[in-house]
Design goal:
The complex is a heterodimer of chains A (about 110) and B (about 120). By secondary structure, chain A is mainly beta. Chain A is about 0% helix and about 55% strand. In chain A, the strands form 2 sheets. In chain A, strands 2, 4, 5, 9, 10 and 11 form a 6-stranded mixed beta sheet that branches. In chain A, strands 1-3-8-7-6 form a 5-stranded antiparallel beta sheet, with no helix packed on it. Chain A is globular and about 45 Å long. Chain B is mainly beta and about 120 residues long. Chain B contains no helices and 11 strands. In chain B, the strands form 2 sheets. In chain B, strands 2, 4, 5, 6, 9, 10 and 11 form a 7-stranded mixed beta sheet that branches. In chain B, strands 1-3-8-7 form a 4-stranded antiparallel beta sheet, with no helix packed on it. The chains are: A mainly beta (about 110), B mainly beta (about 120). Chains A and B meet through strand 4, strand 5 and strand 10 of A and strand 5 and strand 10 of B.
């Protein structure tokens, strides 16, 4: 069973704070790492897909890094805004017999104005 | 607005009923997915269709029956469900055939909230 862990489980920050979350995953047979943002009552929205060790991606105030050798990814949000409040899910894609995304349990971010 | 449309948004059914969940995308994507998400748990893959053919069935009970009538539509037929099947059912699509192009993001619908009485 592939175990994808995200920490922290939840996070409450003030508007303007910068924050980061961690995604840890088994690195064997790894193809790519997906990050999704999921607001309540909406659909999960893709943020990044990263494949190479050392990859860094940026979208506005959100950025992510990937370490495939040790099996972790960080997601950073600079200057959090209330509209950033959501659950952030990471999902590594594995090949071979698995051949699917395995979602982590997510980090719930609440940004207080 | 999401580009993957799921209907209905909510469904309540008895254990003897037969119903269907529908999913539609017009982005020309060739892979479509059904996921099940229980409260406070991550989404879990149920089925994958690649080029309109079932490519992955994650040992889902036969009371769930997927169907892909064409490249834009994905159905999930439900029959004789159990109370533990109550969950959010998410549909997703991705541009190329499933698996081969794992660096492409999946596009999700808003889901169908299913309650089994």
């Amino acid at each position: 069973i592939l175990n994808v862990e995200q920490s922290p489980q939840s996070l409450h920050v003030q508007e303007g704070d910068s924050t980061n979350f961690t995604c840890s995953f088994p690195s064997s047979n790894f193809y790519a790492l997906h990050w999704y943002r999921w607001e309540t009552a909406k659909s999960p929205e893709a943020l990044f897909v990263m494949t190479l060790n050392g990859d860094e991606k940026k979208k506005g105030r959100i950025s992510a890094t990937l370490n495939t050798k040790e099996g972790y990814s960080y997601l950073y949000i600079k200057g959090s805004q209330p509209e950033d409040s959501a659950t952030y899910l990471c999902a590594p894609h594995y090949g071979g017999a698995t051949n699917k995304l395995i979602f982590g349990t997510g980090t719930l971010l609440a940004v207080q104005p | 607005d999401t580009e993957v449309t799921q209907t209905p948004k909510h469904l309540v059914m008895g254990m003897t009923n037969k119903k269907s969940l529908k999913c539609e995308q017009h982005m020309g994507h060739r892979a479509m997915y059904w996921y099940k998400q229980k409260a406070k748990k991550p989404p879990e893959l149920m089925f994958v269709y690649s080029y309109e053919k079932l490519s992955i069935n994650e040992s889902v009970p036969s009371r769930f029956s997927p169907e892909c009538p064409n490249s834009s539509l994905l159905n999930l037929h439900l029959h004789a469900l159990q109370p533990e099947d109550s969950a959010l059912y998410l549909c997703a699509s991705s541009p190329q055939g499933a698996g081969t192009y794992s660096n492409q993001p999946q596009h999700f619908g808003d889901g169908t909230r299913l309650s089994i009485l």
